[in-house]
Fold this protein.
Amino acid sequence: MRTFTGSVAALCASLWALPALPAAAQQYDPIWSCVDEQGHKVFQNYATGHDCHRIDGVVATVPATAAPRPSARSSASSATSGVTPANFPRVDRDVQRARDVDRHRILEDELRTEEARLVRLREEYNFGNPRLIGDETAISPSYRERFQRLVEDIQRSEVSVTSLKRELTPARY
C-alpha cells in the first residue's frame, strides 16, 4: 500500500491558505476613474479631479488616452522651428555645400593614401614570406615581430579603407 503523506500534507497546507486569498486581493489600492482639468478621463489610484468614481473589481487593462492633436496654427509654427531652438546658429546652404565638397575631397585623398599604404604593406608582406633584412633568419625574434607587425598593419589598413569607402558612399534612407 502506498502512502502519500508528503503530497497530502502539501495539499492540506494549500487548502488552508485559500480563505486568505480574498483578503489579500482587497489589500490593493482602489482604482479611480476621474476627469482631469482638460476634460480627459484618467485612471489613477487616488481620487483627485472632479467626477471621480471608484472602480470595483479586477481591471485587466486601462486604455490610454489619445495624445492631443496640435492645431493647424501650432503645427505650422513647429514645422518651421523644428526641434532646434530659434537662436541656434544656422549655416547658409551654399556654405554647407562647399563644406560637404571639401569633406568629400579630403576623404577621397585619405582613401587614395590608405590604398597606396595597403599596396605597399602587401608587397612587403610578400604573401606571408617577408624578405629577410640584414642578419635575420626565419626563426629570429626580430623577423617574427616584423611579420606580426605587418599582419596587424595590413588588417588596420584594410579596416580604414573599408570605413573610408563606407563614408564616401551616399546615404540611403
